[in-house]
Amino acid sequence: MQEPTHAAGHTLGLVITRNDTEIADLYVGGMVSDHALVLFSLKVKKSMTSTQWVTSRAWRRLSHEDFASDLADSHLCCNLSEHADATVDDLIDLYRCMMTELLNKHCPVVKVRRRVKVRRQLSGSAQERQSGRNEGSGGPILQLTGVVGPQS
Questions:
Q1: Fewer CB within 10 Å: N-end or C-end of the chain?
Q2: 23 by DSSP, 3-state: which?
Q3: Mean pLDDT of the region 88-100
């Protein structure tokens, strides 16, 4: 803002946006009490959503009791004397293999489709922005109007 928003000549109004949001038509209106009314429009790029396939596990479906029971019965927890001469690398491999086997049994790997928000930068000429479309990205620009004034 280039002009005062308070009767004492101070600038108390503030509009904070993301760097890809354009502020347009900023106007400091008349005084309402000792504060001025600030009018503005925001040109915000609508987030585009995309989907992608990811590998995940259905952790919410894991039965802790069944998993703990199978873990207690596994080579990791039974007959520990069998592993007395094992090297650290052998124990790590045993741990990795047993945990993978148990997880695959109780919480198998699944492929799921997830929505991913993609924000695109504003680009193109001022004329494209005014028309409400940005040909560089193909997506609409949403125009929001805001008012900043004294709190009730």
A1: C
A2: strand
A3: 95
AA letter at 132: G
Token pair 């945990």 is at which residue? 99
Q: Are 42 and 21 in contact (CB under 8 A)?
A: yes
Taking the C-alpha atoms of residue 15 and residue 11, their distance in angstroms, rounded to an integer, is 11
Give the count of beta carbons closer than 10 Å to the beta carbon of residue 36: 24
DSSP class of residue 60? G
Per-residue model confidence (pLDDT) at position 38: 82
**What values do phi and psi take at 27, rounded to 5?**
-145, 130
Please state the pTM of the whole predicted model.
Answer: 0.44
Residue 122's closest CA among 108, 136, 112, 132?
Answer: 136
